[in-house]
């Protein structure tokens, strides 16, 4: 059974916190893991689901923001936890659901390569190593999932590092997780971060595999994989 707590968005005092009003009227502060702007989602009175901190936790907040419900039709629930994207990606990788990979012989998370750390390093059934970086694309406009929703030097650096690996003859992949069910396409948000868009286009041209997967989330935190989405660079 889900342990998520229902609430309403009140304010975002800073990048990594939100204030929420619980159903019993109490106002609490919750940790915000998603550093994006989220202006189209974090609207006054937006429905939230908060994840209680584990018992005995020494955190400053008793909750983390887990989900927000979009005010735009079809009113999808959207993940506010970037780490959740990695967990969803983990499941797809282990199930052999990512095009071009199939069943894996090995999967490791948070693996260093030189000065970099990538979300996954996997070995496929043929024995080939693939370096994978996961990005959560939670901004959707007119059916298009856009990444990022704020400039990201870190995201661009990851893509450039994967491009260098591909140029050196290694296999690399950027995997976008779309944590909502109202997107039919993924595209880099050139209007917000043209440098990231250019880097992603260059990565694809260099042989970095670009993949995207969409999920339908519900108010209890459950996730249903909806399949792959095309990526347009």
Care to describe what's here?
- The strands form 3 sheets. A 6-stranded mixed beta sheet has the order 7-8-9-12-14-15, sandwiched between helices.
- A hairpin with a 4-residue loop joins strand 2 and strand 3.
- The model has no long low-confidence stretch (mean pLDDT 95).
- It is globular and about 55 Å long.
- The chain has 3 helices and 15 strands.
- By secondary structure, the protein is of the alpha+beta class.
- It folds into 2 domains: 65 residues, OB fold (Dihydrolipoamide Acetyltransferase, E2P), CATH 2.40.50; 150 residues, 3-Layer(aba) Sandwich (Trna Endonuclease, Chain: A, domain 1).
- Helix 2 packs parallel to helix 3.
Strand order of the largest sheet: 7-8-9-12-14-15
N→C terminal distance? 40 Å
Helix content: 10-25%
Number of domains: 2
Q: How many beta strands in the DSSP annotation?
A: 15
Global mean pLDDT? 95
The SSE order reads EEEEEEHEEEEEHEEHEE
Q: Which strand-content bin applies to the residues?
A: 35-45%
The helix-and-strand class reads alpha+beta
The CATH topology of the largest domain, please? Trna Endonuclease, Chain: A, domain 1
Count of discrete alpha- or pi-helical segments spanning 4 or more residues: 3
What CATH architecture of the largest domain do you see?
A: 3-Layer(aba) Sandwich
Biggest sheet details: 6 strands, mixed
CATH class value of the largest domain: Alpha Beta
* Shape type: globular
Poorly predicted regions are: none
The whole-angstrom Rg is 18 Å
